[in-house]
Protein 1
Amino acid sequence: MKLFKKTLLILAIFAGFTFQSCSSDDDSGSQNDDTYIRFTAGGEDFNYADPATAGSQNLTINGQNGNDNTVSTYSSVSIWFPLQITTGTYDFSGDFFQDGDYKLNLESTALNLDGWSETGSVIITAISSDYIEGTFTGTIEGVAITNGEFRAFNL
């Protein structure tokens, strides 16, 4: 009887993995529409689908369009948070890192911009085990960052 139960358990686990990986909407080439970073800078709209979330000494959400910063369409954005992130409104601080800092960095070849937000803030509106969501505004090298919003995976 024990052998039968173990065999049945192994088959159930194997079947679970098999059916989970055979989703009818599985498209490994598509991006995750659930995660994004969007904003307007210098009158230009930026939209980063499926941003990466990384964590070490802090939590960072990164978006990138293109992979060659010599091309006129290249841009990247990073939003930095402390590891112990909570909902609320937080001011961005310059480019010197201290524990608890919130940062916004933007590089855009089209805007000839590569810097850290001197002013502005981020509003963390929701945190779950899966996602971090919020809005942001700022100014980088005199360029206004407006209508910022993000939804990214939480670590």
Note: Confidence is low (pLDDT under 50) at residues 1-31.
Protein 2
Amino acid sequence: MVVTALSYYWVWHGSMSNLHNVIVGMRTRYGKPVVLWSGRINPNVRWTP
């Protein structure tokens, strides 16, 4: 199994319509299912790696 992970932030990468086009493009290009997962980080919490 091969998994490809991408970051998509609407602020920088565009609208939901653009996200749809990216997902369709990935499905077409790679012929694999696409799973969309959304996580949110609390902006009030400082995270240090």
Note: The longest helix spans residues 16-30.
